Amino acid sequence: MTLADQYLSDGCAISFELFPPKTPEGIDSLCQNVERLMQFQPKYFTCTYGAGGSSQRTTLDVLERVKQITQLPVASHLTCVGSNTDQLCEYLQRATDLGVDYIVALRGDPPKGSTEFSVTEGGLRYANELVELIRERFSDLGIAVAGYPEVHQEAVDAKTDLENLKRKVDAGADIVITQLFYENADFYRFRDDCVRAGIHVPIIPGVLPVTNFKQAQRIAGMCKAAIPASLETEMTKDDSAEHQFRVGVEHARKQTIDLIENGVPGIHYYVLNKSEAAAELLDGLQLAGQA
User: Fold this and answer.
1) Record's PANTHER family (predicted)?
2) SS3 of residue 143 by DSSP
3) Does residue 153 sit within a domain?
4) Into how many domains does the chain fold?
């Protein structure tokens, strides 16, 4: 089954994103949360890695464990940062040897301390070049690329951002997974713009259940995702952990229900290696493959 085929069935297919823990205990905890998330019958799991590829080995270890536990396809993030094409191909070969099924192909953010992306000697400048490399040398791998409902922070405007996305899709991407957003209207506008631009692969919204307002502000600042005034008002009424968890999860649940009602083929959840928020917001919802 190809990556795009995951979204052909009726209902809403879901997937979860993880990140590599820093300790063996963290990996054990992550795996326990993965087992809890299996009750929602996800189609696959993805795993990021640290800035500049600092945790690539741990990412592959995590994906190997997750695949053993779940028997599901797994996807590794891969960026152009800090690697030449030979090093990118070495990583792709290791990933393939370990049974990784898909790649989330990204240009990558500038390394910590830098304000702009710089090309590694012998490396790649754009994500579409990474997609082309994968298609040419590792054609069996499925490829997801990133889309930005509120426009990438480095793009000069929405039109240019959309043109960049189309180049990635035309290079061979199977699906688009979006950056997180808090207003569904931003996603619907983006989806419509993609169709008008001739992008016809599945567009998968990315949702982060917010459980802490300070965390939400920090993440929103990093990825240019606006926090609705109504969500900010509700979360800041009470700074207790219980209140902020409840408000944030309820917001993500309403987002999810509205997205399903508006026909999205799937949703990708940024779960921050935890299962409580995702389990609460997904409880009782009609998802792909569930009775």
Assistant:
1) METHYLENETETRAHYDROFOLATE REDUCTASE, METHYLENETETRAHYDROFOLATE REDUCTASE (NADPH)
2) strand
3) yes
4) 1
Which of 17, 132, 150, 234 is the catalytic position? 17
290 belongs to a structural domain: no
Q: Whole-prediction pTM value?
A: 0.94
Which CATH number goes with the domain that contains 155? 3.20.20.220
The 3-state DSSP class for residue 273 equals coil
Is 161 part of a structural domain of the chain?
Answer: yes
Tokens of 260: 């399903």
Please enumerate in sequence order all residues whose Cβ is within 8 A of that of 273, keeping only pairs 6 or more positions apart, or say none: 18, 19, 21, 26, 29, 30, 33
Instruction: Tell me whether residue 24 is exposed, middle or buried, using C-beta atoms within 10 angstroms of its C-beta: 0 to 12, 13 to 18, 19 or more.
Output: exposed
pLDDT tens for the chain, 291 residues long, are 799 999 998 889 999 999 999 888 999 999 999 999 999 999 999 999 865 555 788 899 999 999 999 999 999 999 998 889 999 999 999 999 999 999 999 988 766 656 667 778 888 999 999 999 999 999 999 999 999 999 888 778 889 999 999 999 999 999 999 999 999 999 999 999 999 999 999 999 999 998 898 888 888 888 888 899 999 999 999 989 999 999 999 999 999 999 999 999 999 999 988 999 999 999 988 775 553
Residue 17: active-site member? yes
The answer to whether 284 and 257 have CB atoms below 8 angstroms apart is no
Q: How far apart are the first and last CA of the chain?
A: 22
276 part of a folded domain: yes
Residue 182 identity = Y
Say if residues 181 and 149 touch (Cβ distance below 8 Å).
Answer: yes
